[in-house]
């Protein structure tokens, strides 16, 4: 039997999301305020935008999130060293 896959998982799962809505789980914590989410059923990926709403995770937004995560981690690693000293 041939398995038909859409850009967001199987067509059946995509149809379920269309009817019932997506079931997002956090796939990555970028910062304490920005996260990336993935639907358990259709595998659609979204992220939090500047206004706090969910937006499709495009390659450009993925690069921005990567840069933000690097800055966030560097800033928090320096602040933890200052508290210890």
3D structure, described in words:
By secondary structure, the chain is α+β, with helices and mostly antiparallel strands. The chain has one domain. Helices cover 42% and strands 26% of the residues. Strands 3-4-5-6 form a 4-stranded antiparallel β-sheet, with helices on one face. Strands 1-2 form a two-stranded antiparallel ribbon. The radius of gyration is 17 Å and the shape is elongated. The relative contact order is 0.14. The N terminus is likely disordered.
Short overview:
The chain has 85 residues and is of the alpha+beta class. It is built from two helices and six strands.
Q: Which percent band covers the strand fraction?
A: 25-35%
Quaternary structure:
single chain
Q: Helical proportion?
A: 40-55%
Number of beta-strand segments? 6
Q: Whole-number radius of gyration?
A: 17 Å
Largest beta-sheet details? 4 strands, antiparallel
Strand order, main sheet: write it out. Answer: 3-4-5-6
The overall pLDDT average reads 84
Spans of 5+ residues with little confidence (pLDDT < 50)? 1-6
Backbone structural class? alpha+beta
Shape: elongated
Number of domains: 1
Number of helices: 2
Separation, N- and C-terminal Cα atoms? 64 Å
Order of helices and strands: EEHEEEEH
């Amino acid at each position: 039997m041939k398995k038909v896959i859409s850009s967001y998982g199987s067509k059946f799962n995509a149809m379920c999301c269309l009817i019932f809505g997506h079931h997002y789980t956090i796939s990555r914590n970028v910062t304490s305020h920005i996260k990336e989410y993935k639907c358990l059923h259709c595998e659609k990926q979204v992220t939090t935008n500047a206004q706090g709403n969910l937006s499709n995770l495009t390659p450009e937004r993925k690069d921005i999130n990567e840069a933000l995560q690097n800055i966030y981690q560097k800033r928090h690693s320096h602040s933890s060293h200052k508290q210890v000293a």
